[in-house]
# Entry
Amino acid sequence: MATYSELMAQAQALMAQAEQARKNELAEVIADIKARMKQYGITVADLGGGTTVRKAGKSKSSAPAKYRGPNGELWAGGPGRKPQWVRDALAAGKNIDDFRI
# Structure
C-alpha cells in the first residue's frame, strides 16, 4: 500500500499535468474563438465586453464618437493622446477618415 507522502506526490504531479493540459486547451479555445470572431465579424463590443472600470476622478468624454475602430472601439477624435488602435492604423498607412462613423 502507498504511503501518504507517495500519494500526495502523485496528486501534485497529476495537478501539474492537469494545469498544463488546461493551459494547452485554453490556448486552442482562444485561438478558435478569435478565428470565429474574425470569420463572422464579431467584435468584443458585440459580446458585451470591452468595458473597463474607471478610477475615481477620471471622467468619460461626453462627446459623441466620430470614429469606430476595427474591433468596435469608439473615439471622439478630440485633443489629447490618440487611442492605440488609431496610432496602429496610422502607422500601418491607413487614413483616419476610413474609420469615420
